[in-house]
Amino acid sequence: ALPSSSHFSCCSSGESPSTAVDILLPSPTTSPLSLVPISLVPLLSPKNFYELYIMIADEMRHLEQYFYDEWKRGRRMVELYELVQHAGNIVPRLFLLISVGSVYVRSKEVSARDILKDLVEMCRGVQHPMRGLFLRNYLLHCARDKLPDVGSDFGDNVADSVDFLMLNFSEMNKLWVRMQHQGPVRDRERREKERLDLRILVGTNLVRLSNLEGVDCDMYKAMVLPRILEQVINCKDQIAQQYLMECIIQVFPDEYHLRTLDEILDACSQLQSGVDVKAVLIALMNRLALFAKNEPGSIPPDVNMLDIFHSHVTRMAASVDLAGILDLQVALLNFAMGFAPEKLDYVDQILQVCGEQLAASGSARVDGAAERAVVSLLKTPLISHGNALTIILLEHYAPLINYLPFSSRKEVALLAARMMSKGSVPMSTPEEVDALLSFVQPLVKDVAEDEGEREELDDEDLEAEQSVIACIIHRMANEDTGILFQMYVVARKHFGQGGGRRIAHTLAPLVFRSLQLALAIKKLEIEGQEVAVSSKKLFGFSLETIKGLAGSEPNKALRLYLQGAQAANDCEEDKIAYEFLSQAFILYEDEVSDSKVQMELIPIFIGTLCNLTHLDIEDYDTLITNTTKHAARLLKKPDQCRAIYQCSHLFWNDKIKDADGKPFQDGKKVLDCLQRSLKIADVCMQSGPHVSLFVEILNQYLHYFDAGNDKVTVKYLQGLVDLITEHLANLDTSPESLAVKAHYASTLAHMKAKKEGDEAEKFAELSI
After folding, report:
1. Among candidate residues 313, 324, 412, 400, the one with its CA nearest the CA of residue 368
2. Average pLDDT over every residue of 497-512
3. Most buried by CB count within 10 Å: which residue of 62, 311, 501, 605?
4. pLDDT value, residue 289
């Protein structure tokens, strides 16, 4: 148990000063430090000793306040300073002496330099490592606001503060190192752990040094750092050197490190063999890289940090393993990208060194720490520079990815692909396309060849992944159509290795881009300009690309054939359009067997054929006849009914004209289609209420009647109106029947409006 602050209540109760001091000095039962038996102190762990120290320091605050009040009452501090030195035990004596000395400095009866020097020398009386460390830390704590410095009330000669702190630092470091050599060998691990627990006590000296306003860069380089490094090197202790070098890097400003880079790196070469110099250099490079990035104008022009670091890292290569070398190179790369992001030759030089080290290791694949380092080597320049293509084109960048296992290669490739898809700089040559797609090959190829394993991805993940690759296709651009075509050829070569699941996402956008290029080239041809590649060659390229997709994705390939036919029609290439359509019908007949898909495709066929304007009449007739046959072969009767009446529009197409300029209008075949669909609808009524089919057919009849098809007369309209009215009378009330009735009512309203309007004569015979 420790006494509370009531032991020092004499400062407020009016008790005489001499009585208070007498209470503290002669009796071991009243001093807060004397209450802890000295024999027990060595048994305390650093954690317990620290707790005891905090409690004592808290009590000593009250004692220091008492001494200050004594000085305010007129007591000379020199008397108290001499009086407390009569305490029996040295540890309590020195704690009391420091407390009085703190007030002594505040009194300014003597210069702060003399008192601080005396205190730091007196603390040499305690050589027990743990007690000595905490005693000197208490001295440091009490002196923190009393150090001579620029603008300080206790003097402005900052050299005095430096001398005080350096002496205290050297003594604390010696005590800290001495802990390692006390006790039996079997307790070595425990002692090392205790030392690590106490390291912050030593490092606090460096923090105080860094906080001195008067220590500028010149003083730091000439007076402070050499003395610190001397202590670090001469202690020859692995733990101390490791911690203190890291502490130097962390507590002093970056500007100081820039001016003393050679000194710090030379000191690193003199450290003990067990010190992780790699971690020290990495911490230094990372900090300076961040500084260079945040303060680009603060780098001195005469400091060539890249060469300095590169030379030191190269010298260390022989003393560390592969993972350590790569970690150093990662830190050097981070530093290079932050310090001089525009100097990519430095980046390539670093990558070259890494490639040589990996090749010398004899490993085809790396793992563990080395794998993580290679991933960082590849990711860092991508993220820092922002232009993925520029980085990938570096001579020694892409080969490094081959040392990674498949999963890591894919991780890096996905990052590069995403950055390329979102970047502002497009690919402009076939070589750039080849370089990029070769680098992102784990995303383009479906099988990891070297590992013999097929990647299993669910459809959603695969689609998200391949959508990134699809975006890359739209990042190809060149005003020279011949070069752009060559870029598409290279892309198709890479995408063709992707397997069925991947090419479904990658070949489709390539087809659209090639069709777009064909339209652009055709425009140039019409203008009479010379082109490197013809539009017909682009259409041939598109045909071949779609054929590559047909085996795995017939539905998508068929739609692309129809899109190609539309593009060829826009270029007035009727034979090429016919070829696209022929391939589409062949694919439909050979690969599409699902009735639902067939029903989805027939209207697309019809819509495409209705929009073609440059087909030969004979070819057009062949195609629409074939379409009608396929419509009649649909599995479900309602589907047949709807598909056939839709086919009627193929025989009444104003966009197709014969040699004389007359539109293609075959009223008889239109009527045949409508009559056939009506018969199928009647068959459907036998299996259930399908009155909606009759209403839809009525609208088709009405359309052609309005359009002037003389084969469609009022009698067909009247017959359908009567038929529908009869069937509706027998329908039950249901949401479906209500929808049919509403549709029919709208149709009748339209017919009434026609009958009562300008076309009354035409609809006169119609009875509604």
Report:
1. 324
2. 90
3. 605
4. 82
Q: pLDDT averaged over the chain?
A: 87
Which range in 298-312, 374-388, 719-733 is most confidently predicted, on average pLDDT? 374-388
Please calculate the CA angle 710-714-719 and round it to the nearest 5 degrees: 130
Q: How far apart are CA 671 and CA 709, in angstroms?
A: 9
Helix (H, G, I), strand (E, B) or coil at 768: coil
What pLDDT score was predicted for residue 3?
36
Q: pLDDT value at position 455?
A: 56
CB 631 within 8 A of CB 644: yes
Rounded average pLDDT over 21-40? 43
Integer Cα distance of 740 and 699 in angstroms: 13
Structure tokens at 506: 């990658």
Residue 268 CB burial class (10 angstroms; 0-12, 13-18, ≥19): buried
Residue type, 654: D
Eight-class DSSP state of 220: I
Give the HSE-up count for residue 28: Cα atoms under 13 Å, Cβ half-sphere.
8
Q: How far apart are CA 496 and CA 491, in angstroms?
A: 8
The C-alpha angle with vertex 634 and arms to 632 and 640, in degrees rounded to 5, equals 60
Q: What is the mean pLDDT of residues 214-219?
A: 94
Helices (H) and strands (E) in the chain, counts: 36, 4
Amino acid at site 739? A
In 269-321, which residue ranges form alpha helices assigned H by DSSP?
Answer: 277-294, 305-316
Contacts for 93 with CB less than 8 Å, ≥ 6 apart: 84, 85, 86, 87
Q: Which residue has the higher pLDDT, 698 or 11?
A: 698
Q: What is the DSSP string of 486-515?
A: HHHHHHHHHHTTSHHHHHHHHHHHHHHHHH
Secondary structure of residue 257 in the 3-state scheme: helix
pLDDT at 284 over 70: yes
Please say whether the beta carbons of 532 and 481 come within 8 A: yes
Nearest CA to 576 out of 507, 522, 650 is that of 522
Q: What local confidence, expressed as pLDDT, does residue 456 receive?
A: 65
Chain centroid to CA 274: how far? 36
Any idea which residue has 């702190």 for tokens? Answer: 165
Task: Give the pLDDT of residue 277.
Answer: 87
Q: Which two tokens stand for residue 653?
A: 């197409």
What is the distance between the alpha carbons of residues 613 and 656, in angstroms, rounded to a whole number? 5
The pairs formed by 391-394 with CB atoms below 8 angstroms and a separation of 24 or more are 391/344, 391/347, 391/416, 392/416, 392/435, 392/436, 392/439, 393/432, 393/435, 394/344, 394/347, 394/348, 394/351
Question: What is the average per-residue pLDDT within 94-117?
Answer: 92
Residue 652, SS3 per DSSP: strand
Q: Which of 437, 398, 404 is nearest to 420 (CA)?
A: 437
Phi, psi (5° rounding) for residue 473?
Answer: -60, -35
**What tokens were used for 192?**
């090392």
Rounded to an integer, what distance in angstroms lies between the CA atom of residue 25 and that of residue 250? 43
Q: What is the pLDDT of residues 712-749, one digit of tens each?
A: 999 999 999 999 998 888 877 788 888 999 999 999 99
Q: Phi, psi (5° rounding) for residue 453?
A: -125, 140
- Indicate left, alpha or beta for 572 from its phi (over 0: left) and psi (-120 to 50: alpha): left
- Angle ∠(567,570,576) on CA atoms, nearest 5: 60
Burial of 581 (0-12, 13-18, 19+ CB in 10 A): buried
* Most confident of the following: 359-368, 571-580, 754-763: 571-580
What's the rounded Cα separation, in Å, for the pair 206 and 229?
A: 12
Q: Rounded to an integer, what distance in angstroms lies between the CA atom of residue 656 and that of residue 569? A: 12
Return the pLDDT at 37: 47
Could you give the CA distance from residue 414 to residue 543 in angstroms, rounded to a whole number?
30
Q: Which of 508-512, 658-662, 736-740 has the highest mean pLDDT?
A: 508-512
- Neighbour tally for 52: CB within 10 Å: 17
Report d(CA 63, CA 98) in Å as an integer. Answer: 11
- Residue 739 makes CB contacts below 8 A (sequence gap 6+) with 692
